[in-house]
Amino acid sequence: MSGTIRIGTQGWNYPGWVGPFYPDGTRPASFLSTYARAFSTVEVDSTFYAIPPAKSVRGWAERTPDGFIFALKMPQEVTHERQLRDADDVADEFLERARELGPKLGPILLQMGPDFAPEGFSRLERFVERLPRDMRFAVEVRQQRWMHDSILPRLLDLLRANGTALALSDGKWIPRETMTMLAGAPTADFHYIRWMGPNRDIVDYSHLQFDREEEIVGWSEVLGRTALQGTTVFGYFNNHFAGHSPANARRMQELLGAAPVDPSTLGEQISLF
């Protein structure tokens, strides 16, 4: 049985998308509802910076159709500032807020900083083991030392024992070859993949600025094999991957056999669900 593959972007609130993706004249208040006509999932970046008000979270759910899925980033106060030390209070408050999404809540990402080293394994272990079992979580590590033979098996065993995914990130931190290899050894019933790109200097998100076709084709083959194993995939493109993440996400949809939505139709009152 094939698994479901959901492809989207990291965030939706980008004025530079008006014109190339959102129809001309689209106001920020309509960005999310318009986005949801093209993609069935999104990674919410804003939760990394602060716990959103309950009203805002409910508003996200109200502006998207049934079946839409939000992936949320754990606040940086937990992952970066406290590095999982004495962070249960903030994490619990955030998770309670996340439940406001109801059935539209997808995986919650713990994006650890590049300075979070294997010496912090015991903190990660304690934190992961106390996470609620009725929610889905993914952990992203950004230090190459986590991939060493002395620690990687322990990391994978910890995540597998708790049904937590290892987030696979295509960026500047860990080689792509390592990430694609790990796609063959899932630690949960879903994969969480992030296409970050090596260039963090991009500030204009209105158009593609780098050719990432080879990388996207390679990942599409990985995702296809993963789905055949029955594993669900959540995949999100960052604007820094090539300059304009909606175009990358649409290309991935195309390679996976889906029919990408033509941006010129997004002003129409249509539903994909």
Structure in words:
With 273 residues, this protein is α/β, with parallel strands linked by helices. It has a single domain (5-265), classed as TIM Barrel, CATH 3.20.20. Helix content is 31%, strand content 16%. It has helices at residues 31-35, 54-62, 76-81, 88-98, 121-129, 152-161, 176-182, 213-228, 245-255; strands spanning 5-10, 41-44, 69-73, 105-111, 137-140, 165-166, 168-170, 190-195, 232-237. A nine-stranded parallel β-sheet has the order 6-5-4-3-2-1-9-8-7. Strand 4, helix 5 and strand 5 form a beta-alpha-beta unit. It starts with a strand and ends in an 18-residue tail after the last helix. Residues 269-273 have low confidence and may be disordered. InterPro entries: DUF72, UPF0759_sf. It holds the Pfam family DUF72.
Number of contiguous helices: 9
* Count of extended strands: 9
User: Per CATH, which architecture?
Assistant: Alpha-Beta Barrel
User: What pattern of helices and strands is seen along the backbone?
Assistant: EHEHEHHEHEHEEHEHEH
The share of residues in helices is 25-40%
Major sheet details: 9 strands, parallel
Which strand-content bin applies to the residues? 15-25%
Highest-level CATH class: Alpha Beta
Strand arrangement, major sheet: 6-5-4-3-2-1-9-8-7
What distance separates the N and C termini?
A: 21 Å
Q: What average pLDDT do the residues reach?
A: 95
Spatial extent as radius of gyration:
18 Å
> Number of folding domains?
1
Question: Looking at CATH, which topology would you report?
Answer: TIM Barrel
* Structural class computed from helices and strand pairing: alpha/beta
Shape label: globular
Low-confidence stretches: 269-273
The CATH superfamily name is Protein of unknown function UPF0759
Pfam families: DUF72
InterPro entries: DUF72 (IPR002763), UPF0759_sf (IPR036520)
